[in-house]
Amino acid sequence: MTDFATSVGTEVKTYQQFIAGSFSSTTEHIEVLNPCTEEIIALAPRGTKDDADRAVSAAKAAQTDWGLLPAVERAEYLKKMAQVIRENRVFLAETLSTEQAKVMGLAQVEIDVTAVYFDYYAGMARTYEGEVINSDRPGEQMMLHKLPIGIAVGICPWNFPFFVMARKIAPSLLTGNACVVKVSEETPMVCLEFARLIENIGLPAGILSIVTGYGHEIGQALSENPDVGIISLTGSVGAGHKVMEAAAKNITKVSLELGGKAPAIVCKDADLDLAVKAIVSSRIIYSGQVCNCAERVYVEEEVYDEFMTKLLPAMKAVRVGDARTDDKADMSAQINKTQLMKVDSMVKRAVEQGGEVLLGGRASQKFNKGYYYEPTVIANVEQHHEIMQDETFGPVLPVMKVSSFDQAIDYANDSDYGLTSSIYTNNINNILRATKELLFGETYVNRENFEAIQGFHAGFRKSGIGGADGKHGLEEYLQTKVMYIQQN
Ligand code: NAD
């Protein structure tokens, strides 16, 4: 038993928030459920405006000195974070898997990649740089400096809670900002366990606070705080609207990574076995709850029948099971009942609009408890149907026949979302056209959708503003200042 998380009964832990270098209690809590068993497994703090203000004040008090440290010294703390993650990798993966129904293999990947992520950004300490610019005046030097913005607030979703938390912490701390992370109320455990693990690595108090609670409460309070310099949200378009509204009050910079409705285009020359394998794995990874999952499929009519003949058995073979106890499961339960109902109601409306369910189409009957949905394939869908337009975030693949590659591109772009896309083809002209004509932040050719840490994960249209990862993701946390120095 620790002072940050006390056991109640045998399993239920009561967590505390990590603010200004120590753990503190709240009077109200939010129940955290295991989505596979519906059991309460933890009580997480329901953070308040006071908690938000305390975290921001502590960040403000600590940031100036932190920002003046050489970046290599700040990088040492990121390396320590990577180290404690590696030392506790199995425990963290088990915690993650239990609170969010992520199959253990994928949960372990998330934990391990997060350690790599901290090391990756630590390695940038010596490489991010300003510029020296030629001046128009004799004896003058012009220098462009990259300075921290000040206080960075990171607001995180439940689907990759550990990795996305690191996506906010690593670049903001390396560049000299103080950081307040608001983790999701659905999946706070693994992030608050991380707070415990880094409590004694020597980070100055206030440089990093990890808080939790509801978005409209502590999330809103953080977004409205005038001392905050940047708010980086990963979440739904709805939350993006709210954060932008709050940020507008103080002209606070926002970086938004929002939802997606990723199209997958299967061309008539595609390797169909490869396309089926990649699309199925892209659709069922974390039970369909990934922002860049294939959400809609367009298949050229010449190969539509053959594609469907291969797709259906592949989707049928997907094994659904308890994330913690079934080590052969490909996917598990949806995060909560609301998400399960949302997926189910979207499928029902797709059928009302004329769609034909070829596989699944209902909550799983295999389990007595838990929020499981069957892997689902829907045909006879039309471009204007809700299932082709709105993010489903579940294991549901609507598939549409198209008459040409031109039509596939038109339909793919006909979306409010513009996060990721994929195309299956061996035709170089199709690939070259997709480079310029598919209007999405990422396009994957002949592979499933999953980004790399050295890339730039960013969405077009309502999928967001700004982005994360790589050197461009680091720039989000910097502001540019020009010095004009006149020699006497
Ligand atoms: P969500 O929008 O419900 O919540 C995300 C976070 O925002 C949570 O911490 C929540 O508490 C907070 N929030 C909600 N309302 C807020 C408000 N008014 N002010 C401040 N904070 C607020 O999203 P979710 O259900 O946790 O995650 C799923 C969504 O996230 C999907 O749409 C998915 O596509 C998207 N997502 C996008 C990416 C990406 O990289 N683009 C990555 C993961 C998830």
TrEMBL record:
UniProt family annotation: Belongs to the aldehyde dehydrogenase family.
Pfam families recorded: Aldedh
Keyword terms of this UniProt record: Oxidoreductase
Protein name as catalogued: Aldehyde dehydrogenase
Catalytic site positions: E257
Protein species of origin: Flammeovirga pacifica
InterPro entries xref list: Ald_DH/histidinol_DH, Ald_DH_C, Ald_DH_CS_GLU, Ald_DH_N, Aldehyde_DH_dom
Entry-linked CDD domains: ALDH_LactADH-AldA
